Amino acid sequence: MPKEFNPQQLRKVVERAQGGSIEDFQRLYESFAKPIFNFIWRLSGSSQEAEDLTQETFVKVHSELPRLCDPAQFKYWLYRIARNEVYQKLRREQRTAMVSIDDEDTGYYEFLEDETPGLNPEQAVLSGELRSVVQRALDAMTPKYRDVFVLAVFHRFSYEDITRIVGRSLLSVKTDIYRARLIVKDHLNEYLQRKS
Amino acid sequence: MTCREWRIQISSDLDGALSERERREVRLHLDDCESCRGFVRQQQRLTSWLASDEFQLEPPQRLWAEIEARIAPAPGRVLRPPQWIAARPRAGLAAAACLLLAIISGSLFWNSGRIDAEAQRDIAAYEMMPQVPENPFFESLAVEGNPFDDTRSPQ
Hints:
The complex is a heterodimer. Chain A is mostly helical. Chain A has nine helices and no strands. Chain A is elongated. Chain B is built from eight helices and no strands. Chain B is elongated and about 80 Å long. The two termini of chain B are 60 Å apart. Residues 111-115 and 122-155 of chain B have low confidence and may be disordered. The A-B interface holds A 18-20, 22, 25-26, 29-30, 33-34, 37-38, 41, 47, 50-51, 54-55, 58-59, 62-63, 66-67, 107-108, 111-112, 115-116, 127, 131, 134, 152-154, 156, 158-159, 174-175, 177-178, 181, 184-185, 188 and B 7-8, 11-12, 15-17, 42-43, 46-47, 50-51, 53-60, 63-64, 66-68, 70-72, 79-80, 82-83, 86.
């Protein structure tokens, strides 16, 4: 189970990692790897890209860490780097607005097959389909909506923290999360109407 | 306010982003608006479902090993100094020299009652030592002149 740090512990671990301690950098990795991996996966829509970009993110964090002035800001800074890595990659691939799921991607849904043991086969299929609908809704959003929705709803960041990560106003964050919610709702509605 | 504007507030409320006063206002509106109550029920279910473990992936176990292979210093490579030393090399050197002096002074004090000829030879040996330790790390800082001179302008 990865350790969650309180703010004082986090500050100390970050400072030691800034001083070159690989052990402390590993502690940071263990604490943040899963949320960052999931954050990147939700933004990119591909588990393979999430793996590559998580690696790039932590390598970059390691090289830039000595320049981080305030260790208390580490978490926001880390998410900002992860987000930048995703959009730099998407820009390189000229896939800015619409990110489609790679058909060859054998990532997320297969991982989840065994994670719904309480469901009968019919429910499991429905659950898998619903997840796929949500992913399509995320893919259909502009990055502007997707960023803030993922941070608020999947990662439960406060709106103030989200403004620090995405560098936008509170009002813009609030409105974009609402719009993203409507997009997810519309995709689910459409799917459920087709099913009935 | 229109229902659309209320729903932006409701969306924020679901994420815990409203003040107590704003929440009271939302509750008052909900008392009168069945349509917005429907929106709340729908979004509550959606939000709790999306935040559940069903939407969590585990990163592959091998990922750290791959990262470590890229960030670990190669054998024989000199580690980068911490930022505060890199930014103020003279301060780093001064700190090292102060530490050395503290060790010498502490040793003198500790042994003051029983200094014998052997101890005096040790002290003399300390005094003959260069103030800057012969260490590639400190050499790499390339500090010239007297590190104790605070009157010099910083680099």
